[in-house]
Design goal:
mainly alpha; 2 helices; 0% strand; elongated
């Protein structure tokens, strides 16, 4: 499941082209970030992921 929105990435990367493999790599990074945040929240006894978990 993709977590990123390609159009939003294109807008953020103004004045440059974005390759298809960048989207895939970015999505993997975001998924890993979310996974680490969830693990941290659970380790702290919470069921809610918060900004501080990043």
């Amino acid at each position: 499941m993709a977590l990123i929105v390609k159009n939003a990435v294109k807008e953020a990367a103004k004045n440059v082209n974005v390759s298809a493999d960048f989207y895939d790599a970015l999505d993997r990074e975001v998924q890993a970030l979310v996974k680490r945040a969830v693990e941290r929240a659970k380790a702290n006894g919470r069921r809610t992921v918060q900004a501080r978990d990043l």
